[in-house]
Amino acid sequence: MKQKDSNPGFGKGQVGIMEETVLQVENIRKNFGMTQALKDVTFSIRKGTIHSLLGRNGAGKSTVVNIIAGIYRQNSGKVLLEGKEISAYSVFNRQNMGIKIVPQHASIVPNLTVGENIFLGIWPQKKLFVDWKRLYEDAKAELDKYGLEVNPRTKVSTLNGVDQRKVNIIRAMHGGAKLIILDEPTTALSSKEREELFVFVNELKKKGTSFIFISHYLQEVVDLSDDVTVIRDGRSFAGADGELLSEEKLANLIAGEEVELICRDILDTPDESRLFMECRHLSGTILKDVSVKLYQGEITGLVGFPGSGARELCRTLFGLEKITSGEILYSKKKVVIKNPFDAIQHGIAYVSYDRHREGIVGLMSIRENISMPLFSSSLKTKWGLINQRKSEEIALRYFDRFHMKANSVNDRLKSLSGGNQQKVVVAKSVSTDPRLLILDEPTIGIDIKSREEIIENVIKTTEEKLTSVLYLTNDFDELLRTVDRILFFKDGKLVQDVRNDHLSHEDVIRLRDSVTEKSAGTHQEVSP
Which of 114, 276, 356, 526 has the fewest CB atoms within 10 Å around its CB? Predict the structure, then answer.
């Protein structure tokens, strides 16, 4: 179906009610002080469609959504709901008119029942009291209407993640939703829950409800969306025909340039001669009897929900969490790692998922940040001073290697973009020539171009130095392009060790959700 000029995005060729426009955003501009967050954003949403809104962090997605919801007021431009200008209306007015937001984390009151949550704030009354009989009868009717088979008297806290999100959506539908904004709705959902949510959303779409879908999982966008708008540098850009759309094309559109997605040639199973670290029966606050072998030149991915043990293994090996039992063998010799200093002494480097708290010193320069781990070793002179010339040489080497965008290595780190800050964080760890490099969400919250440059340098380090890498990320497409094998964690245990033999994104989700306990420290061959 040929894309209409008045409908930025890509269409899958649906007809009927979908041709009716429910929301129009026209030439929106928004300033925050001297900063121009949005320069010119225009798109429209058709009735009964799922319209994805994409863009890297800081691109303006949240600003657009907040303007649609009435939380922010634009400096110029128009927002129209079913052809009516609503820019002057409040958040409350817009909610009553049918614009609803379902946030990333289910917005529920856990200690209240399903029925109480559905009618939150509008409980039916009988004289001065709540009419509980009517509330639960009406709630049952709403649940039946939208196909959610739960007891309305059940406490919401007992429901799984997807059913909690469904309760949010049903509450929105009961309030007369015409447009529902889904902000990262699949975060922490299992494969089955994710599929259930998509079926639920598609059923509501068929009945005429429109959705704005926000997700950083690009394959979800390809699978689910009718239309796509990308926000980049404060401007809107239309997607392409849905039949031709791919993750790589979306990545290019988000970045505004050709971005080659890095794909590592997966290694064969290494032999025991390349074994350099072995964990035997490690236990800690979360970890329970975890045994695993790490090999030179191998990138090992970690997968698991929060608290599963995946992140905890990373932090334990760097001495940030205590070992209560078990042992670590380093080059076949038992070592004790009680703190990060011990880990660094044994050639272990760590990149935290929280770069602002555990990765950077914003007031220091790029050079000082990269050199920091070397102050007490290779940069220290015999007089106890820092070799400034050598420090600059090392910083310049990684400045060029990571394609950092700054005036010089003497720029303060806080002046850099998030992507360039993260490049410095990874370069700082790589500069120590570690034998084990632990990366915890190394590309979270950065632009696609920076992401691929970081991945490329991690792979290059692995190949050149035979560094072993532990790679933890919730972006499974990124994971599969990077790692040789994957460790799956659940309830503090290592439950599966799988070679990355042509695994797909869906395979990883399925394995994560259906893992059964295996003997740790072995390579379990699992077919997709």
Answer: 356
